[in-house]
Write a structure and sequence with these properties.
Layout (H helix, E strand, L loop, with lengths): L12 H7 L4 H24 L4 H16 L2 H8 L7 H15 L3 H13 L22 H10 L3 H13 L19 H24 L3 H20 L18 E2 L3 H6 L6 H6 L8 H8 L6 E2 L2 H9 L10
Parallel strand pairs: 1-2
Helix pairs in contact: 2-3, 2-10, 3-10, 4-5, 8-9, 9-10
C-alpha cells in the first residue's frame, strides 16, 4: 500500500524517503527467531504434556509466540517486511498459516480498513458481522470479547466463508467483499489454510495429552491478540485526522519487540509504506502530533473496565 493518509507535512520529504526504505535482514532475523522459538517451546509442551504444572505455563508462552506471527503476516501483506516481492509472498504464507488467514483475504480486508478507517459503513472492522466499534461495557462483556468474541470469531468467519460458503453469502461479511478482484484466489488460499489447520487439529488430538495443550495454546493466542489489537481504534472518533482515529500505545521493550513495533499504530496508519523497523524513528518525529497516545496496554484496559474510554491522556 503506497497511499499516505496524513495530508499534513509532518515529516520532511527526505525523512519520509529514508524511513520508507525496505530492509530484508531485520524481518528475516526476527521471523526465523520466532519460528525457532515456536518449534522449541511446542516440542517442550508435547514432551511434558502429561505434567500440567509444566505444560500449562509453557502453553501460555507458546501462545504468546504464536500471537506474534500476526505481525510479520501484517507486514508482508503490506509488502514492507522484505525488499523483494517474493520474500513478502513467502513470509505472508508462512505467517498466514500460523495466523489462520489467507494472505489475499487479509490484504483485501486490511486495505479497505486503511482506506476507510473508522467509517461505520465501509471499514470492515466496523461493518457486517465483524464490527468491533465500541468498547464492551462491563467486565463480563469485556471478558467474552477478549477471550471468545474477538479475533477468534473474526478469523473463523472469514476462513469458513471463503473456503466453504457460496459467494452469494460473502456480502454478509460487509461491503468490503464487493472490492474483491480475484475471488477464485481467495477461495483457493482459504482452503489451503483450512486444510493446514484441520491437519494440525487432527494430529494434536492424536498426540494427547501434549497435543491438547497445543490446541489450548492455539486458542489462547487469540486472547493475547485481542488484548493489544483492540486498542488500535476501539472507542475512537469516526471523523477527524487519521491520527485522531488511530491509537498508539507506549509499552515495554519486550512487548514492542515481540509485536514488531505495532504499538506505533497511528504512525503506521498515517504512512503505511513505512516498514515496521522504522516506526520508532517515525514516532520520535511525530509524537507531539499524536492525538491518542496512551501509557500501556494494561492501563488502557483498566481504564475501559472503569468506564473511562477517553481516547487519549493518562487512563
Amino acid at each position: 500500500m503506497e497511499e499516505q493518509f496524513e495530508p499534513r507535512p509532518l515529516l520532511a520529504l527526505d525523512d519520509l524517503r529514508d524511513l520508507m526504505q525496505r530492509r530484508t535482514s531485520p524481518s528475516l532475523l526476527l521471523l526465523v527467531g520466532q519460528l525457532g522459538a515456536f518449534l522449541l517451546v511446542a516440542t517442550a509442551v508435547v514432551w511434558w504434556g502429561q505434567y500440567p504444572w509444566r505444560a500449562g505455563p509453557l502453553a501460555l508462552l507458546l501462545a504468546w509466540i504464536w500471537n506474534s506471527f500476526f505481525c510479520p503476516f501484517h507486514e508482508c501483506t503490506h509488502r514492507t517486511a522484505f525488499r523483494s516481492p517474493l520474500g513478502n509472498r513467502i513470509g505472508a504464507w508462512i505467517s498466514g498459516i500460523f495466523f489462520g488467514m489467507s494472505p489475499s483475504v487479509y490484504r483485501t480486508y486490511h486495505y479497505q480498513h486503511h482506506r476507510y478507517t473508522r467509517d461505520p459503513e465501509k471499514d470492515p472492522e466496523l461493518s457486517g458481522k465483524n464490527g468491533v466499534a465500541p468498547w464492551p461495557s462491563g467486565i463480563l462483556r469485556w471478558t467474552l470479547a477478549m477471550g471468545v468474541l474477538g479475533i477468534f470469531l473474526l478469523k473463523y468467519r472469514l476462513l469458513i466463508a471463503f473456503a466453504i460458503k457460496p459467494r452469494t453469502e460473502w456480502p454478509q461479511l460487509g461491503p468490503w467483499t464487493t472490492q474483491i478482484d480475484n475471488p477464485d484466489r481467495l477461495v483457493f488460499e482459504s482452503r489451503v489454510v483450512l486444510a493446514c489447520w484441520v491437519a494440525f487439529l487432527s494430529a494434536a488430538v492424536l498426540m494427547s495429552p501434549g497435543g491438547l495443550w497445543l490446541i489450548f495454546a492455539a486458542w489462547f493466542t487469540h486472547v493475547y491478540q485481542t488484548l493489544w489489537l483492540s486498542t488500535e481504534h476501539t472507542g475512537l472518533p469516526s471523523e477527524g485526522s487519521i491520527l485522531a482515529r488511530t491509537r498508539s500505545v507506549e509499552t515495554t521493550k519486550f512487548v514492542q519487540f515481540s509485536i514488531w513495533n505495532m504499538n506505533y499504530h497511528a504512525e503506521h496508519h498515517a504512512w503505511p509504506s513505512i516498514p515496521w523497523h522504522a516506526l520508532p524513528a517515525t514516532h520520535t518525529r511525530v509524537e507531539k502530533h499524536l492525538e491518542s497516545f496512551v501509557p500501556g496496554y494494561a492501563a488502557l484496559h483498566r481504564s475501559v473496565l472503569r468506564g473511562n474510554t477517553l481516547p487519549c491522556g493518562d487512563p
